[in-house]
Amino acid sequence: QIQLVQSGAEMKKPGASVRVSCKASPYFTRYGFSWLRQAPGQGLEWMGWINGYSGETHVAETFQGRLTLTRDTFTSTAYMELRRLTSDDTAVYFCARQIAAAAGPVYFYDLWGRGTLVTVSS
Amino acid sequence: EIVMTQSPATLSVSTGERATLSCRASESVTTKLAWYQQKLGQAPRLLIYGASTRATGVPDRFSGGGSGTEFTLTIDSLQSEDFAVYYCQQYNRWPPLFGQGTKVDIK
Predict the structure, then answer these.
(1) pLDDT in tens, B17-70
(2) Which residue of B lies nearest to A103 if distances are taken between CA atoms?
(3) Could you give the percent of chain A with pLDDT greater than 90?
(4) Of A43, A112, A115, the CB nearest to B101
(5) For the residues of A28-90, what is the DSSP string, one character each?
(6) What is the pLDDT of residue A101?
(7) Alpha-carbon distance A46 to A37, whole Å?
(8) Which of A49, A64, A92, A108 best probes binding to B when mutated, by most B CB atoms within 10 angstroms?
(9) Cβ neighbours of A61 in B, within 8 Å
């Protein structure tokens, strides 16, 4: 069964960085992958997108300078790294797949990872 | 950016009844509108895309309608497994933003 497998929960201190992975197979390079987050009791916040084939990225203005998206086509894995963490970054982080990478960063998501809880606390 | 506004925030419905959820865009998104269902502690699940096309495996009691700036998600004969939070998302223009969600709970 096709699924997106995300890395496990993380506990970080303010000012640190976190890296979350999302393994997607098969056909990784056919898809685009967005990262979204959901703070406790809140809605969905879109963070950015990476093209699984080309590696092209688009990052929401809110996260520019602090968020890096990468991918490894050999391991079919997308990565999200968020730096300079604060308590406001405490959230569940989701990766989500869009069917057509060539459609660009604005699309809908047919498959989601189960989410990775990132807790930022001193 | 296009702001998505959902109403109501909470909808109390009895099992077997119909639920109608609304989503409004601050400018036209044509029919590039998706709906997702999220149950507590789970990831969102795609229900509808293209404003009215059901995703694979979605029961036909779920239907979407609308275009431009006004959209609806209708759930006919609500089942116990349908109690959840529902989000709309526009994908007409960057960034692809979501509404704040409508919680459907048991009346």
Answers:
(1) 999 999 999 999 999 999 999 999 999 999 999 999 999 999 999 999 999 999
(2) B91
(3) 87
(4) A43
(5) GGG-EEEEEEE-TT---EEEEEEETTT--EEE-GGGTTTEEEEEETTTTEEEEEE-S--GGG-
(6) 76
(7) 7
(8) A108
(9) 95
